[in-house]
Amino acid sequence: MNTRTTARFPLTRLLARCTVAATVALATAGAMAQAASTGSGQAWPNKPVRIVVPYGAGSSPDVIARIMAEKLSPRLGQPVIIENRAGAGGNNGTGAVAKAAGDGYNFVISTNGPLVYNTVLYKKLPYDPFTELRPVVLAGGQANVCAVRADSGITTLKELVDAMKKNPGKFNFSSTGVGSLSQLGVELLKVKTDTFAVHIPYASSPLSILAILQGDVQFACVPAVAVIPQVKAGKMRALAVSTAKRSQLMPDIPTMKEAGLPEIENLAWMAVMAPASTPTDIVRRMNQEINAVLAMPEVKEKLHAQYMEPIGGSEQDLQKFMQQELRVMTPIIKRTGISVE
Fold first, then answer.
1. Exposed, middle or buried, 15 (CB in 10 Å: 0-12/13-18/19+)?
2. pTM metric for this prediction
3. 45: cis peptide before it, omega within 30°?
4. Which of 172, 189, 242, 291 has the fewest CB atoms below 10 angstroms from its CB?
5. Shared domain check, 85 and 136
6. Are 148 and 206 contained in the same domain?
7. Domain boundary among 223, 241, 259
8. Cα dist. 37→116, 145, 253, 316 in Å?
């Protein structure tokens, strides 16, 4: 069985699409100026727009949402309010927007798990991201970084694997929630290396990292934005990145294959979604505005500083990407045997 987690649109191609999409968005700025309609005859938006982040403050979706909101507000002519609604591995906030009014004032920036993986993991997910939400734009992505505490005595990913084999049952790992890529990436690593570690989920990547620093868990593979500051502070050691090639933003960290393990590739991505009943003209306007924002040099600079890459593209690109992620990850999830009530 092919267990690579590479989707049809890997990061390099997604970044290329972003450049094209952003150029188109900027070139059609004049067309974007005409107001969308809420269906009641009123111009949209005529009040603050809410973007729910289904994770805690400081998480990757929270960071990219706030960077985008700063530039979106003047373009939309209304405040863009970020609302953190963490819980259940991102399901609470994502599900809340799925059930919200499709009036153009409710959006969510969610991730791999709540938008795709949890449809396979959960026996009864309280919402359906493929029918109750509609794609707006694939905002950005980043590599996960596998890391340990600096004083652990472990210097490479292979050493971590060897330690787990020699000490079965003594290793725990943290994640950003059940069904998140930070869990599934490690579960796949365990399958590939025939190792065992207990999964302990947390509400955000900062909390996941704090668990390592406090000694509650021994390692994690979580978004770089939470890991690298601790690495620079000398408190943690980065062992490998989850992408197929070294990240240009973290060129000193090897890939898993370079670290001496089987090739494992995955991308932590963040997408903006709206309730399914949201009018098409509003979704298109929001898509165009976000693409324009993602193309701004100052936005790219801020995202790169957080080890994120802007992606962008059309609503259709995101829809195809999510469907491909579902096809690729379903057999992997089933192979790990993970299931959530």
1. middle
2. 0.82
3. yes
4. 172
5. yes
6. yes
7. 241
8. 30, 43, 48, 21
